[in-house]
Write a structure and sequence with these properties.
The protein contains 4 helices and 35 strands. The chain is mainly β. Among the domains are: about 90 residues, no CATH class; about 220 residues, no CATH class. The protein has an 18-stranded mixed sheet that branches.
């Protein structure tokens, strides 16, 4: 005769056998008690506990949890054995952590964290005509600047915890010098002393083409490339602010800057002219600020942020040439200043949550564009239109008002749809030609004109 198990009813009312459950695990409660006891003894001064030593042994937790699942939850004897193993482990870790030198007893080298070290970085350049530089730091503030000459491939210094001391490698292949600066940080979980200021300074040679790649896990990055001839730039940071000053005058094939957590600020020196093929900036969480130069060309500009404001500035009366400008923000305001003159190509600005403001400092004064798209999920939109070109402008908002400023000299036709909100065409050059359609007198024959397609789901529309 088969044994009958208790039953319970599901949502459909059908009985299912209830499976017998194993014993509850005891490892986690023992570890909680053990950590509490260690913390108490440390606070009372009974035991001098080095928490950095304890952190090194965190994989022991996974081993004990695995033993508990395999043995401890299926029999009383297994629970007793695993529990004793956990108690012995906690006691042993307490014994070791109170004096890290005891690690030598079990054949483990005593860790050397908490010791501040400093030194110089210097490598002769050699007979090369270009330089490839890779800097990869685990947990240090990084400062990059320019040397006064080109005698050395790198000059600099460092001040770090001993486990974060950087390693420098330099070699030449033909006319190319290859410089690599790395920082392992060991394989432990945050093994360094947080009280030690970790900083690495790297000065690169002037007047030599440089491809520069920078990567950081934890710590700010400050790159002043004013006096350098950087041709390619790639910057990646996991956590910490990123500040980049682009070269005074350079031909950059690509600039790619990204961060997971922390602000990004990219600037060009005052009065500089710059030529960049591709400029890409992306940020997971943090503000993005791009200060564009007065003159130059930027073929393709892409700015993205998931969480944080995006601000793009230009000097008054600037003149820049672009083929495309794409700005996208998940949550945060977008404040975009366009140059007074030049050409923009295709412009796309999108936001899910936050105000969008597009201005033209000192203009427009001969600013041409091919197309303009502005979309916002929730937030007001204000757009100053370029004054040259025969282009379409699509402006849409789900929640928030829309304001469009049409400059003198630009003919326009505006087709406006609002589900909830007023329509206010206050520009005296417009006249209503049809339901929901306004037009300037010279639109049909104008060489500089815009076709406005404006849709607002909830919010008024104003044309000035």
């Amino acid at each position: 005769m088969s044994k009958e198990y208790p039953t319970y009813e599901t949502e459909g009312g059908q009985p299912n056998p209830e499976r017998r459950r194993g014993r509850p695990g005891i490892i986690f409660p023992i570890l909680l008690i053990g950590v509490g006891v260690v913390a108490l003894l440390s606070n009372l001064g009974v035991a001098d506990v080095n928490w950095q030593v304890l952190v090194r042994f965190w994989p022991v937790l996974l081993i004990l949890l695995g033993l508990d699942v395999i043995f401890g939850r299926h029999s009383f004897l297994g629970s007793v054995i695993v529990g004793l193993a956990a108690l012995i482990t906690v006691a042993g870790l307490l014994w070791v952590s109170s004096a890290p030198a005891r690690l030598e007893v079990i054949g483990i080298k005593e860790p050397k964290w908490g010791q501040a070290v400093s030194g110089n970085i210097e490598e002769p350049l050699g007979n090369v005509s270009r330089l490839e530089v890779d800097v990869d730091l685990s947990a240090s503030e990084l400062v990059i600047g320019a040397q006064s000459g080109r005698e050395y491939a790198v000059q600099g210094d460092y001040s770090t915890d001993s486990v974060l001391q950087p390693s420098v490698y330099y070699d030449t292949h033909g006319d190319t010098g290859e410089l690599t600066i790395t920082q392992s940080g060991d394989n432990w979980l945050f093994p360094w002393d947080w009280n030690v200021q970790n900083r690495v300074t790297v000065n690169l040679p002037a007047d030599i083409p440089i491809d520069l790649r920078v990567k950081g896990d934890l710590g700010g990055q400050s790159l002043d490339l004013t006096g350098l001839d950087v041709r390619y730039l790639e910057v990646e940071n996991s956590s910490g602010p990123v500040t980049v000053v682009l070269p005074q005058s350079a031909e950059l094939s690509s600039v790619n800057i990204s961060a997971d957590l922390g602000s990004i600020t990219v600037s060009v020196p005052n009065g500089a002219a710059i030529n960049v093929d591709d400029l890409d900036i992306s940020n997971g969480s943090g503000a993005v600020t791009l200060n564009l130069p007065s003159l130059g060309s930027l073929e393709h500009v892409n700015i993205k942020a998931d969480l944080g404001a995006i601000t793009i500035t230009v000097p008054d009366n600037a003149s820049l040439d672009m083929r495309s400008l794409y700005v996208e923000n998940g949550s945060g305001a977008v404040k975009l200043a366009l140059p007074a003159g030049g050409s923009l190509g295709d412009v796309v600005v999108k936001a899910d949550l936050g105000e969008i403001v597009i201005s033209i400092p000192g203009g427009p004064n001969g600013l041409r564009t091919d197309s303009l798209v502005v979309e916002n999920g929730s937030g007001a939109i204000t757009v100053n239109l370029p004054d040259e070109g025969d282009y379409d402008a699509t402006i849409r908002a789900d929640l928030g008002g829309i304001t469009v400023i049409v400059p003198d000299g630009l003919e326009a036709r505006a087709e406006i749809v609002t589900d909830l909100g007023s329509k206010n065409v206050s520009n005296p050059r417009f006249r209503e030609v049809d339901d929901d359609t306004w037009e300037t007198d010279g639109y049909d024959s104008g060489s500089n004109r815009v076709l406005l397609d404006i849709v607002s789901s909830s919010g008024g529309v104003t044309i000035r």
